[in-house]
Amino acid sequence: MTLTQTEPSSKRPGLWRHILAMVYDMFLVAPLFMANAFVLVTLFGPTDDASRATVPSWLMQATSFVIVVLFFTLFWRKSGQTLGMQAWRIKLVDSNGQPPSIGQCVARCIVALISFAPLGLGFWWSLVDPSGLRWHDRATGTRLVLLPKRQK
């Protein structure tokens, strides 16, 4: 049996491939942040002084966090891949090779942010982990797999 583009292999994507997929996805999330800021500034009004914000910082941060969680959860739950992951042939699966649950997706987002906080230590961990897993993989029972190249 040959693997198709959507069937995961047991091979893990390297850290650099994962980082490049995240960079690609940042280009997709950035406009969502800008739209969020536009809506909040429209609701709260513009500032008269650049040193004083009219939008509470906690609200901007909370809505940005929700945007990130929704973005990744919707993509991961639907197909196991964001657009950046599709470009780099990476797929997220649970420990049984199935699409992750909504709870796993949300938890993965939260733990991935924690993994990223100490200079990305939770991501770099995959270089020393015997299974090549990151902190958020271990915490949520999910893993990234490398999809085979598409046959021409």
Provide a compact summary of the structure.
With 152 residues, the protein is mainly alpha-helical. It has one domain. 55% of the residues lie in helices and 7% in strands.
How many angstroms separate the termini?
Answer: 17 Å
**Unreliable runs, pLDDT <50, ≥5 residues?**
1-6
Question: Residue share in helices?
Answer: 40-55%
How much is the radius of gyration in Å?
A: 18 Å
Order of helices and strands: HHHEHHHE
User: What is the helix tally?
Assistant: 6
Number of strands: 2
Strand content: 5-15%
* Shape category: elongated
Helix and strand composition category: mainly alpha
How many domains? 1
Major β-sheet strand ordering: 1-2
Integer average pLDDT? 89
Largest sheet features: 2 strands, antiparallel
List keywords for this structure.
55% helix; two-stranded antiparallel ribbon; 2 strands; mainly alpha; 152 residues; disordered N terminus
Walkthrough of the structure:
This protein is mainly alpha-helical. It has one domain. The chain contains 6 helices and 2 strands, in the order αααβαααβ. The chain has helices at residues 15-44, 57-79, 83-87, 102-116, 121-124, 135-140, and strands at residues 90-94, 142-146. It has a two-stranded antiparallel ribbon with strand order 1-2. The radius of gyration is 18 Å and the shape is elongated. It starts with 14 loop residues before the first helix and ends in a 6-residue tail after the last strand. The relative contact order is 0.18. The model is unreliable at 1-6 (pLDDT under 50).
Would you spell out the secondary-structure blueprint of this structure?
Blueprint: H1 15-44, H2 57-79, H3 83-87, E1 90-94, H4 102-116, H5 121-124, H6 135-140, E2 142-146
Helix pairs in contact: 1-2, 2-4
